[in-house]
């Protein structure tokens, strides 16, 4: 079975993990630029002031800023139809609240889009992907402040007008639902709580997180409406980190717990951005947790008028929940859940579940009935360079093959799936750990966890496998 004609095969990256050039040509610091390196066992630290002698992975990342022509040429060699990328907000507005944009930053993306057009690769642009300008964190505590909505819309207006003829597909926020979890407060919301020193420590303010999420909902809706006014051909979507959750048993307590996890981790954001209103379960959750969302009188109408055109999501693994607190938790899984005995796990303890992707696609399409994109899916693994210089990453091929097979099954089920952009198509910095050792790409980048390496690019075995997948439109796996 092939995918339908016009299906967008490609890959995905994020500026804060990929681009580098953190202080070049007028760019200001972002929240990501203030995060140190880390490992699987050592959390990344958040430093309000840069520390001399400390390694900050995003500062250079893998230097797409200096290698974009080479990188896009390699994507074209694979046959990419779409490249998901993000624009670094602080490259356009260095402090976030500047009155005028940074022209040098705008020119960089002019050049990137021109290069993509040369190879007929469609850009899918994330407007905000874990890189709130750090100036907004310092002055307003990021998205905790309603004022940041206006700064974001100014930024969107600049992008939409500048690139209205170069970009058709946009995502307003990356993994917006990460603000429903303490882990996402700083990365997704630019929120910095007193006493919070690492991404994973226990310092949290749920009231602030969900208020910030509401501000992002309003900003997203306003951006959708603005984008359609500037160019009616724009297609603007949401993006959710999908946490597919199974009940551990047929015990009704397990089933209700899994349903609640699905509602509060996944569906709250989809319902607001696709349907245009908060669902009833969210209102109950807020009441029970003592969370009071401060709304302006016009917010409900704004949400109704700013519904997205398509739904995109990341999918890496599935979770299992149980009402039995004594059961073993899944190692390495930042998102919680217990161990699933039916699944294997990655080097980082993430449970590998291709059939869960088919289940998720059907689950989403049944609920929303709008086009879907899988915009992140991939395997973080330790790659070994052989004596002949090759990288035989059959484990990555197996992972991707299994997930693409299940995508095809979902399409046969009737799901309107229009794109697949595998995550980290070129090796990049891990967002959660700050490592380079955790590699996703079809293309190896010569750089290690400490920032050493000449940044040279080398295709892996999976590069040639994916090239054939695209050439056959998914028929040959």
What does this molecule look like?
Strands 1-2-3-4-5-7-9-10 form an 8-stranded parallel β-barrel, surrounded by 5 helices. Strands 6-8 form a two-stranded parallel sheet. It has one domain (8-471): Glycosidases (TIM Barrel). The chain has 477 residues and is of the alpha/beta class. The chain has helices spanning 15-18, 64-78, 89-92, 103-118, 134-140, 147-162, 184-189, 206-230, 252-275, 280-289, 299-305, 354-368, 394-413, 461-471; strands at residues 8-12, 82-86, 122-126, 169-171, 235-241, 244-247, 310-314, 318-321, 372-376, 417-423, 443-445, 457-459. Keywords: Glycosidase, Hydrolase.
Give a short overview.
The protein has helices at residues 15-18, 64-78, 89-92, 103-118, 134-140, 147-162, 184-189, 206-230, 252-275, 280-289, 299-305, 354-368, 394-413, 461-471; strands at 8-12, 82-86, 122-126, 169-171, 235-241, 244-247, 310-314, 318-321, 372-376, 417-423, 443-445, 457-459.
Number of strands: 12
Order of helices and strands: EHHEHHEHHEHHEEHHHEEHEHEEEH
Alpha plus pi helix count: 14
Any idea what the CATH architecture is? Alpha-Beta Barrel
Average pLDDT, rounded to a whole number, is 96
Organism: Paenibacillus silvae
Pfam family, one: Glyco_hydro_1
Family: Belongs to the glycosyl hydrolase 1 family.
GO molecular function, one term: beta-glucosidase activity
């Amino acid at each position: 079975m092939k995918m339908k004609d016009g299906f967008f095969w490609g890959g995905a990256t994020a500026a804060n993990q990929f681009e580098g050039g953190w202080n070049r040509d007028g760019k200001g610091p972002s929240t990501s630029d203030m995060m140190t390196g880390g490992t699987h066992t050592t959390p990344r630290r958040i430093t309000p002031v840069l520390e001399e002698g400390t390694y900050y992975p995003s500062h250079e990342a893998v230097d797409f800023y200096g290698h974009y022509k080479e990188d896009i040429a390699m994507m074209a060699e694979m046959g990419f139809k779409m490249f998901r990328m993000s624009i670094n907000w602080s490259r356009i507005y260095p402090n976030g609240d500047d009155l005028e944009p940074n022209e040098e930053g705008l020119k960089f993306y002019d050049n990137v889009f021109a290069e993509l057009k040369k190879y007929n690769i469609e850009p899918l642009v994330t407007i905000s992907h874990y890189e709130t300008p750090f100036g907004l964190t310092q002055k307003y505590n990021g998205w905790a402040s309603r004022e940041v909505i206006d700064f974001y819309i100014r930024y969107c207006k600049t992008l939409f007008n500048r690139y209205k003829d170069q970009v058709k597909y946009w995502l307003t926020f990356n993994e917006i639902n990460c603000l429903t979890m303490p882990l996402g407060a700083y990365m997704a919301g630019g929120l910095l709580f007193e006493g919070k020193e690492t991404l994973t420590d226990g310092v949290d303010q749920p009231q602030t997180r969900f208020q910030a999420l509401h501000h992002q909902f309003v900003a997203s809706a306003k951006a959708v409406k603005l984008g359609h006014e500037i160019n009616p051909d724009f297609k603007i979507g949401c993006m959710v980190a999908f946490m597919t959750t199974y009940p551990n048993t047929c015990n009704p307590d397990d089933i209700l717990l899994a349903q609640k996890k699905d509602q509060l981790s996944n569906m709250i954001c989809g319902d607001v951005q696709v349907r245009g209103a908060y669902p009833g379960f969210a209102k109950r959750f807020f009441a029970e947790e003592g969370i009071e969302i401060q709304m302006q009188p016009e917010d409900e109408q704004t949400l109704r008028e700013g519904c997205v055109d398509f739904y995109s999501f990341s999918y890496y693994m599935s979770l299992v929940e149980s009402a039995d607190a004594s059961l073993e938790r899944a190692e390495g899984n930042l998102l919680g859940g217990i161990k699933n005995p039916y699944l294997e796990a990655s080097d980082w303890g993430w449970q590998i579940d291709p059939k869960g992707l088919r289940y998720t696609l059907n689950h989403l399409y049944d609920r929303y009935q709008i086009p879907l994109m899988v915009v992140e899916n991939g395997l973080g693994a330790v790659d070994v360079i052989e004596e002949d210089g090759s990288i035989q990453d059959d484990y990555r091929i197996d992972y991707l093959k299994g997930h693409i097979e299940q995508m095809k099954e979902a399409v046969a089920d009737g799901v309107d799936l229009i794109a697949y952009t595998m995550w980290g198509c070129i090796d990049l910095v891990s967002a959660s750990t700050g490592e380079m050792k955790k590699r996703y790409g079809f293309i190896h980048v010569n750089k290690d966890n400490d920032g050493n390496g000449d940044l040279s690019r080398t295709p892996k075995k999976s590069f040639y496998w994916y090239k054939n997948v695209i050439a056959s439109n998914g028929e040959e796996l």
